[in-house]
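Example (one chain per record):
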Amino acid sequence: METVALEINGVQREVQVEPRTLLVELIRDHLGLTGTKVGCDTSQCGACTIHLDGAAVRSCQTSLAQAAGKKITTIEGLHPKGEHPLQKAWIVEQVPQCGYCQSGQIMQAAALLAKNPNPTDEEIVAAMTGNICRCATYLRIKRAIKRAVREVSS
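Predicted structure:
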């Protein structure tokens, strides 16, 4: 075991973990932040998407060593009250069905909008490719992203 210092959702934390611990394990099992989901465990589905210094990454394939010194943001840290424009748009557009992939979808979309505040349909599709939704709510996801863009720009 080793003590690791990390900044997660704006809070400095120290945790005792094995050096090979994956970020998703730390987030869920050690810190109890269960909004980040484990889907495929192979970086293919996107359910575990978080931000490292604002970039969307798959936490199921990210080691603590790769996260060292970076700001980690999970769905719980996207907005302190869950009122990020994307979170609100997700509700208005009734995106979730089973809901399992939604935190990863929202985190991927938030990274897109941070880089490109007014993406085209094609840019949205390209950025969201790789985040799988078993319920196939892709059209609602795209509508929610576009709604968030409108809300922020108005």
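Caption: The chain is about 40% helix and 15% strand.
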